[in-house]
Amino acid sequence: MHKAYCSNCRERKEILDVEEGTAKNGRKLLKGKCVSCGEELVITLSGSGAGTDNGSGAGTDNGSDEGPPGNV
Ligand SMILES: [Zn+2]
Questions:
Q1: What is the pLDDT of residue 38?
Q2: Residue 53: count of CB within 10 angstroms of its CB
Q3: Stated pTM of the model
Q4: Which of 23, 28, 35, 61 could form a disulfide with 45 if both were Cys (CB 3.0 to 4.6 A apart)?
């Protein structure tokens, strides 16, 4: 089961209808739909395996919490 960060749900979601594809730069990617809202999600694979998306997704989540107050 693949997961990706959904910008619509603002959290990591499981992906339905996963298809493999190739980006213009030759990288492998996976396309699918958010299990909750149906938003199209794309995971870019950096070549060595599917573990890469775990790190980047969690990092983005945490970072947005630490923004300067009063900015919004
Ligand atoms: Zn979603």
A1: 97
A2: 19
A3: 0.57
A4: 28
